[in-house]
Amino acid sequence: MLQHAESRLEAGERIADRLSTDLDWNLHFHAGLIVLTSQRLLHVEDGHFHEWKLATVDELVLEELGPTTALHLMQDGKAVWHWRITAGHLREVESFISRFKEQRGMAEVGSEGAEEDDEELFSPEIGSTEPKFAGRPLLRLITFSRPWLGLMLVGLGLTVASTGASLLGPWLTMSLVDDVLIPLQSATHEINVQKVYQFVGGLLGAAVLTWMLQWATTYVVARLAERVTSRMRRATFEHLQTLSLGYFNKKRTGDLISRIGNDTDDISLFISVNFIDFACDLLTIIFTAGVMFTINPVLALAALGPLPVVAWLVQWVRVRLRGGFAAASRAWSAMNSVLTDTIPGVRVVKAFAQEKREIERFRQHDQQIFDTNDRVNRTWSFFEPTIAFLTEFGLLVVWSVGAWAVAHEHTTVGVLTGFVLYVTKFYSRLDAMSRFVASAQRAAASAHRVFEILDVKPDMPVNKDTRKVGRLRGEIEFKDVRFRHGTRQIIRGLNLKITPGEMIGLVGPSGAGKTTLINLVCRFFDVSEGAILVDGHDLREIDVMDYRRNLGLVLQEPYLFFGTIADNIAYGKPGATQAEIIAAAKAARAHEFILKLADGYDSMVGERGQQLSGGERQRISIARALLVNPAILILDEATSSVDTETEREIQAALDHLVKGRTTIAIAHRLGTLRKANRLVVLENGVISETGTHDSLMKHSGTYARLHAAMVEVNHA
Amino acid sequence: MKLSLTGSNLSLIDAVGVRHDNLRPVRLFPLTEPRHWISLVDEKGHEAACIDDLDALDPEQRAIVEAALARRDFVPVVKRITAIKRATEGHDWHVETDRGPTVFRIETDESIQSLGGTRLVIFDKAGTRYLIPDVAALDHDSRRKLERYF
């Protein structure tokens, strides 16, 4: 389409921007292309071609319509053309419109149009996604074992050796029968007793050698498997830590836990047990087949007769099992999700007397596990006995063909005995191999689920040449900040400058964008447009870790990790001395209640600090923020009211905390509101009022209304 | 700062000359730093003073604090685990401690907690705390028994 548009260009006309559209006016998927040149706007669609001179066009109007957007072309005050595009491409549309405005301005003054680098214009079109790693999950496991290549080779060598050793037995048996037992029975020759000892001794030696080699193999391979899966678990967790909050908001905790826990375990089992077995089996099968053919091709051919049937069966089962195991893994995840949901939420469950409902929910998910496993078992239960039957059948063939051959003196009893031993080995290995099919499918499904996490690209582009900022003064400036989450525009053009040490109280109805604003300052998300500057640096250009060292965060619902109180206070500064910890706790008014606990600062606080009250947890999190001595403090006050005594304690702790720091507080407490240097009222993602408490009260706008409501609630 | 102990009354005359009576010594880090950070708390639960290092006090003052601490100190140190037997709820631990042999019952695995490194603290059903300062220093048999639970 681009070539088509290019062919229409006039001399001296340059392409300034282009926009791919993916819908037609009736909202059916349909590719189109709008090209902006220095003089015209071109539209190409299915070989149709429209053009408008830039000078005649008034403007391009964007209309957001939920999951789609419309772009209207205005001429003489009327919409003369419309395009529809899915909302995922909103950014491109907006940049196209601004480019259009530039070009149109230039067209009016008659300039030739801006020089633009063509590189960017030829970026991938709408709809093309990055190619994902398509490698088979099991093959990809090998990349994880690369650091232990030596160990892998040792394991492989041991496997070959132990398999070879295990085949010595039947070979010796063959000679034992022909050279010793048959002559012994027919008594035609002088019996050499020495020979019997030799053979029995040889058999014993072969058995011992096999035993030792197998021992070594199993150990080496199990060790390798543990290493590989441990690396996988760590890599997955490390990768998870690099992902943004956005990813975690979308994911179910139970599912992630199950992927890192259960799925890697499946893989470990596969490598350590099944894979090694498989290699042994394969080698045994090849070796035995080779041996059998060299001894007697006719017998060998007869013995291997049922092989094609087996091969077909394996393939059939493989296909059926693959889906089954993937479904089972998903069912496990779903059940884990129910558990991680219900167990921490048990208070809510009990308070609303919904135990029965949760039991039912669990039962349904458990039923799903049962059903998927049942499905796998049904395939399975048919498969294994069938292989066993085919083994018997193979033996039967060998016995009958063998009997005929011995009778016609084509072969000896010894050879036949050896054959029976080899065939038994052969088919028993085939049986084991079929089991391998199942575990391989299970491991493949698991590996796929683990790699799925590893393949998630961090959605916040990491800027390579970021600056280290060190200690900040704490000046924050919002420059026309916009933020969009999916198709929802949450912050719509926000301008605000906060001087170092200033305390800003954010006020506004819920959904106004207060929490989003805080998330942007913490750089949990990047702004969609505009910029946030701290001490004059664009937030996107400075090192995130370095920047966050300047941040202190006190959340509505303080999160305490499982560990001692001292550990929790020192979370942001692991090397803190006890004196520092105590000082922080004292400043946060936490010291005295900690004194009362049996183990003082060594007291364990549970998964969510269950033994502590809300106010106590709040104060520990304040101490945590104090200890890192942040330049910028982010405060998300709890809405719930606490008793006046606690309120006073928390207030005193907060007073200590905000002193001399740039503070952005989502304020709910009247004390905080009065104390703030400036209150910023947010409504629908824009600032509607700013000023001190007193000036805003006089103004009798949104703030006065919110304040009245707050006072009413507090006195109710 | 001057401490005195008369009968069960631990009192303190602080730096500005104010007298505090009926103080209670509280270890802030009883498990990790038993000889540091000892807070002296009055009857209302307010801290009157805090001793950051017991060994930095002069011997006479130290003896006073130690005597006051000893009155309420009870964290037996486990020297040997003789047996761990399954009970109807939880397990009965038969141990030898620095305060003599005893039996206590613990209810869940969470009752055994690591204090970093090889230090363990065990909470029995009644809330008494037993300390194993160094798991590696236990005898082989005790370690084997412990291994099954922690």
The CATH homologous superfamily of the largest domain in chain A: ABC transporter type 1, transmembrane domain
The residue fraction in helices of chain A comes out at 55-70%
Subunit arrangement of the protein: heterodimer
* Strand-residue proportion of chain A: 15-25%
Determine the N-to-C terminus distance of chain B: 45 Å
> What is the architecture of the largest domain in chain A at the second tier of CATH?
Up-down Bundle
Describe the structure using short key phrases.
heterodimer; A: 716 residues; alpha+beta; PH-domain like; ABC transporter transmembrane region fold; Rossmann fold; 3 domains; six-stranded mixed β-sheet; four-stranded antiparallel β-sheet; 24 helices; 19 strands; 57% helix; elongated; B: 150 residues; mainly beta; 2 domains; five-stranded antiparallel β-sheet; three-stranded antiparallel β-sheet; 2 helices; 44% strand
